[in-house]
Amino acid sequence: MSAPAALPAVEGLAAELLPDKDKVYFNDYSTLVQQQGMLQDTVRTSLYQFAVLENRADFAGKRVVDVGAGTGILSFFAARAGASHVYAVEASGMARNAEKLVAANGLDSVITVLNQRVEEVQLDERVDILLSEPLGIALVNERMLESYLAARDALLKPGGAMFPDFACLYAAPFTDDALYNEQVAKTTFWTQQSFYGVDLNCLRDEAQAFYFSQPVVGPVSPGSLLAVPACKDFDFNTLSIPDLKVFEMPFQFTMGGLSMCHGFALWFDCRFPGSQRHIYLSTSPHDALTHWYQVRALLRSPIPVGSDHVLVGSLRFEANEARGYNIFVKATNCNTGVSSDNTVVTQCALHHFQYTAQTSTPIFAAQPMQTQPAASVAQVGGASPSDSASTPVCAEKWCGDQV
């Protein structure tokens, strides 16, 4: 496997001169304000509690590793579900606070906090269950999933359970004139021909490339989506670490009406495979908002699309040295031959970059996609998330009413 791709946003800067992104990453998660933000995500925390406590039989008497434990909240759930012992592995300084919480709640005989990277942990024997929240924005950002798989390979018994064990990454074309124009407007500064007597215009293209390389993190209006999403499955039981370093999402979308495609919205679902009850967590625009929000990758130039036009292309993800991904976006309207592309760069501190632009009304919007009952509600059954209730179902007819 080749080395992680260089960051287009800092092209020309040697990798060894970049800040230590692991230090940035772990220092960030060592703060109580960051942990509070995750704990107060009631969708996230509640569904993890449901996944464990509604499947007590899976945890009773079992040894558990909590990968990236943070404050240890998932370890507390496992202990209260009857686990014989829980190893709460946390690489950041938050491990000290986790130890305080364990002692204060009288669980120090059941929960052991290990202030180590999970890749460095050695146990006397493998455990029965891996429990973790390794999910980043757009599922893979922060590259915590690689540590989750490393823990699987080194610490989990053959046939042991992973909570979660499966996820789907979704992508759908969207329209948003206001957002696109906001990004273009940011480059206006660099068009000045006499800024204190200096002509800045020669840097305009570089500035625009940088602004458009930034992922847009925030809630996506379901009405801005132009087609039923494409999806890519991730089976954590069988997935390899190299599979996460470079992967591609090819797509073919049939458009519902006249509009401008400004880029692609990304979100994910994941599954907790309890023997009593499967629980699904969804970050879909159709479901309750979480701290993961959704992510939009803009095209450098929008593509006009019409009813029944076919949009083809791909999203290619290449891991970078900032614990994120370079996402190479390519799209073509097969009916007109008009193409556009872009490179979007994610990084470990992506949650700090959120946008507030209002979603504009499409020129000619499709009928809103119908959905089955929300996947964030606990469900019984063994279907994968790609078959789960978060998967949008295209309406039989499209209409021209604006939404």
Question: What does the model show?
Answer:
With 403 residues, this protein is of the alpha/beta class. The protein contains 10 helices and 15 strands. It has helices spanning 21-29, 32-39, 42-53, 56-59, 73-80, 94-104, 144-155, 177-185, 204-213, 241-245, and strands at residues 63-67, 85-89, 111-114, 127-132, 156-163, 166-174, 216-218, 230-235, 246-254, 259-273, 278-282, 294-305, 310-319, 325-333, 339-345. Strands 6, 7, 8, 10, 11 and 12 form a 6-stranded antiparallel β-sheet that branches. The chain has a 5-stranded parallel β-sheet with strand order 3-2-1-4-5, sandwiched between helices. A hairpin with a 5-residue loop joins strand 14 and strand 15. Helix 3 (42-53) runs parallel beside helix 5. It is globular, with a radius of gyration of 22 Å. Mean pLDDT is 85; it is low at 1-18 and 351-403.
